[in-house]
Every structure is written in structure tokens, then in C-alpha cells.
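Review this today:
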Amino acid sequence: MKNKKAVVLSSGGIDSTTVLAIAKSESYEIYSISFRYGQRHAQEIEASKKIAQLFGVKKHLVVDIDLAIIGGSALTDDIEVPKGRNESEMQKEIPVTYVPARNTIFLSYALAWAEVIDASDIFLGVNAIDYSGYPDCRPEFIEAYEHMANLATKVSVEGKRKIKIRPPLINLSKAQIIKKGVELGVDYSITHSCYAPSSDGKACGDCDSCFLRKKGFSDAGIEDPTNYV
């Protein structure tokens, strides 16, 4: 099928960048979307711009929304980002870095854009193995959202097109994700994962996201190109 289109949620991190590479390898015309939502680690926006340019996406949107006025997360509120935790500690409960309803909100923007540009597929980099326990990264959430999307859009209700939410990394470990990306030629040095970067943009090396990133590269046997403090 010529000119098949996909909307790809791009955070500038490992997972979403790997997903973008997967979509490109499947010959999609890519429309990437990122969000400036009041996050303290806004360096990820610059990373997403570089990634969009590198992959030659058809169009990259940076959407401004303010989840900081809602708060409730260490990423958007005056709450300390957890550091120095091990894997078992991370899995005990949903961490304070969870942003209330974030993926639900992001997917809603992606869904609206997909309907406008006649795209059937929305790709996102959620993962249910090496992740921080977020409820909106789980398979049941993706399945429920896809069901809702096909009830909520004109194109689906009129039978013109079904919306498919594509989480190709959902059952992969971080190491498997990195290996897949390397196979597809992803340059992870331009990605950003840290929740609490320094003023000059270096990764802290101690937050949950940095821990998972380090572990992923180590388990994959691939050198970590990240610039840590």
C-alpha cells in the first residue's frame, strides 16, 4: 500500500525512537508528535526534534499543554524525583514520576491528528517489562484505548477506517529494545531519558529512567553513549 501513514508518539527517549525506526522500516510515512507538557526534563523536546530530522519524518508536531497546573507528579510538580532505587524497589508501587493520565491525553491528540491526516496506525513506545510500573503502559490500557478510539472517531463509526494502536515494544525487555534499535540503525546518543537532568542537559545517572537505560545497555552488551553527570 502506497503512502500508508502513521502517527508516532515521540518523547525523545529510547523506546519511542526505536518505535519510530520500526515504523520507518515498515514503510510508513511518519508523522511524529511530541509534547511540551510542563515536564522538568524538557531536554527531551530538543531530542525529539533532532530525531524527527534524522529520520526525515513527513511532519513533526510539538504540542504545548500544561499538565503542571494539575501537578501530582515528580515530573511536573514540586515533588522530588526518586533516585538510587533498585529494580525491586521500583516495582513495589506506581512511582511519583507517574504523570496522571499522560498517555491517555497524549494518545487523544495523536488520535485526532490521525483522523485528520487519514492515518490508521498510531505507534507508541509503551513497555510492560522493563518499565516503572505505570498503568498507562500496560496491554489492557492499550486494548481499551483502541476500542474507545474506534467508538469515538467519525472515520471508524462511518466504517471508512479502523484505528490501530501499535505498541511494538510492549513485551520486550529494555535490552531487546536497544538491540532492535541498533539493528535498525538508531543513534541512541541523541536520545534523552533522564527525569532529573543537570542544567547543562547531562543525565543524572541515578533516577529510575537512568537506571533502566543503564541496565538496558549493559544487558544488551552495547556501550551506553549517554553523557551522565
